[in-house]
Amino acid sequence: MTQAPATTAFSRARGLRSRRGAAALGAVVVSAFALSACEKPTPVAQITVGSRTATTEAQCYDDGKNIPNEELETCVSERAEKSITVDSGDPVRIGVEPDIADNGWVLFVDGRLVTPTPSKHTYASYNADQFFNAQSQPGQAPVPSEKAKVGIVEIDDDGNYKGAWSFDLKRKQS
Q1: Contact 122, 96 (CB under 8 A)
Q2: Which CATH architecture has domain 44-171?
Q3: pTM for this model (two decimals)
């Protein structure tokens, strides 16, 4: 009785493994090449309410270069891509990446500046009710609203705008 040599079966298995390995390596190389052709992602900002988080990339961002005021105003007035619902009294946590915090950032609600001094922190917390009391006229009592547009604007020490992120907050209906 003759048996096929064991080395033949072993070399076939080894050849199959090396072809699979080469295919896997090829897939990794192709994926890395495809990713290198993509745009570099912008820093992100997020709003967290309870266990829900909305995260977005910048609406205006030019890899850390200055953004002209006119462009920033246009960008910030656009519709926010992300929204989150909040209940009265909920803590609203705003987070930014360290790159944004290194320059500093200010907070706008419905186009009005809320934090006149830029924050260098990556995190800040506010009461949800602060976002829904829009002033109709200077000196008049705030008028409660059902939604608010929150804008986070990166600003450097020289007052140059670097990026803008925005979210829509919606008051939970009782």
Answers
A1: yes
A2: Sandwich (2.60)
A3: 0.73
Determine the Cα–Cα distance for residues 60 and 46; give it in Å rounded to an integer. 15
**What pLDDT was estimated at residue 125?**
96
Nearby residues of 97 by Cβ (< 8 Å), 6 or more positions away: 43, 44, 45, 122
Provide mean pLDDT across the span 86-99.
Answer: 95
- Give long-range contacts, CB 8 A cutoff, 24+ apart: 41-46: 42/163, 43/96, 43/97, 43/99, 43/100, 43/154, 43/163, 44/97, 44/165, 45/94, 45/95, 45/96, 45/97, 45/100, 45/152, 45/165, 45/167, 46/94, 46/95, 46/96
Give domain limits for the chain.
1-38, 44-171
